[in-house]
Amino acid sequence: MSVTQQQVLECLAKVMSPRGVALTNANVLSPITVSDGKVFFSINVDAAEARAWESVRAQAETAVRAIPGVSAAMIALTAERKAGQSAPPPPRPAGGVQPASAHRHPQPPGGASPMARQADIPGIAAVIAVASGKGGVGKSTTALNLALGLRDLGLRVGLLDADIYGPSVPRLTGIRQKPELNHDKKMIPLARFGLAIMSIGFLVEEDTAMIWRGPMVMSAITQMLRDVAWGTLDVLVVDMPPGTGDAQLTLAQNVPLKGAVIISTPQDLSLIDARRGLAMFKKVNVPVLGIVENMSYFQCPECGTRSDIFGHGGARHEAERLGVPFLGEIPLHMAIRSSSDAGNPVVESEPDGPHAAIYREIGAKVREQLKGAIAAA
Ligand code: ADP
């Protein structure tokens, strides 16, 4: 049975808002997207009222999930702060209330670490970001293979595909199922290759993901971080959206990150972009664990000969110059591309090969830097 927008509206008409009228009459709802049994919309309120609305968001989500035929519901609460208004209350640990204007104030008053406002996620020792200054540099491929490299080192690892504009983890892992809900109505991450995996791409089609904008992005990602039953993990690898715009900055600021890994290709342009990535994490006091040079050199699949077609070594020098660790160089190799595109990443498909060894070496350098957090947990 297919669910209609009308059914969702009828269900929301029974949810009372703090304004004393039904949710559907409170003039706060975004357009409702219903796609293949999955329902998405946001409740847009003033930041000063956000706290009062969180329980309404939760009630609405529970009610929508109870509609026969609904397989998933993601309802974001977005809070817009009016000009001249004082700061909204700090984000709550669950539920996804984020001030839309947060990105305009990357540093909280007094210069305290924004991390101080971020509650850790129970059960997860360290959340790390894999980021790039621009798309197409192999960020997602590296995030997944790095997660597998960390797994091979004996760690319990999760992967969150937060690349909301173009989630590629479903393709890279071959996962086609949707996550199910547990008894607490939390989404159960998909298990593949010994990793706990969650992606917005499991819930929406790629073109639907494109309509998530601004505060909705953050709200959806907060839910994927906090309303997912991750279990106990040593490391959760977050595949960030590419670039260094407002959405990325807000994300870097609002996810409780222990560190970030920057992926760059050797071309100068991409290094300039990588520098922007470094600056972004610096701004929000997230330590940069290091730079990885991807597609560093071309390795012929026939004869194994190495060619430095892009003028290799730029990222290593840049890392030295900027005083951040250089984590390693990954060749441009057919096996990495074809295995990724077939949903069977190279660390999994060729565990004894040279590429898997490189990802494990990078993983070991990352683990070394996180060992305090992992041991403390
Ligand atoms: P991003 O997440 O930065 O947009 P992807 O991880 O989706 O990039 O990679 C873009 C393309 O490049 C994919 O087809 C992927 O298989 C390929 N790719 C990534 N890294 C390598 C590599 N080291 N060698 C060969 N192909 C690669």
How many domains, as an integer?
2
- What's the N-to-C terminus distance? 45 Å
Low-pLDDT regions: 82-117
How large, in whole angstroms, is the Cα Rg? 21 Å
CATH topology grouping of the largest domain: Rossmann fold
Question: What is the total tally of β strands?
Answer: 13
CATH superfamily placement of the largest domain: P-loop containing nucleotide triphosphate hydrolases
Give the % helix. 25-40%
Number of helices: 12
What is the CATH architecture annotation of the largest domain?
3-Layer(aba) Sandwich
Order of helices and strands: HEEHEEEHEHEEHHEHEHEEHEHHH
% residues in beta strands: 15-25%
pLDDT averaged over residues = 82
- The biggest beta sheet, please? 9 strands, mixed
The shape is: elongated
**Distinct ligand kinds:** adenosine-5'-diphosphate
By CATH reckoning, the class of the largest domain would read Alpha Beta
Secondary structure class reads alpha/beta
Describe the structure.
Strands 5, 6, 7, 8, 9, 10, 11, 12 and 13 form a nine-stranded mixed β-sheet that branches. The chain has a four-stranded mixed β-sheet with strand order 1-2-3-4. The model is unreliable at 82-117 (pLDDT under 50). The chain has 377 residues and is of the alpha/beta class. The protein has helices at 5-12, 50-65, 139-152, 169-173, 206-209, 214-226, 246-254, 268-283, 314-322, 334-341, 346-349, 354-376; strands spanning 33-35, 38-46, 72-80, 98-99, 124-132, 157-161, 190-192, 195-199, 233-239, 257-264, 288-299, 306-307, 326-332. The protein has two domains: 1-80, Fe-S cluster assembly (FSCA) (GMP Synthetase, Chain A, domain 3, 2-Layer Sandwich), CATH 3.30.300.130; 124-376, P-loop containing nucleotide triphosphate hydrolases (Rossmann fold), CATH 3.40.50. 34% of the residues lie in helices and 21% in strands. The structure holds adenosine-5'-diphosphate. Adenosine-5'-diphosphate is lined by residues 132, 135-141, 168, 242, 294-295, 330, 332-333, 336-337, 340-341.
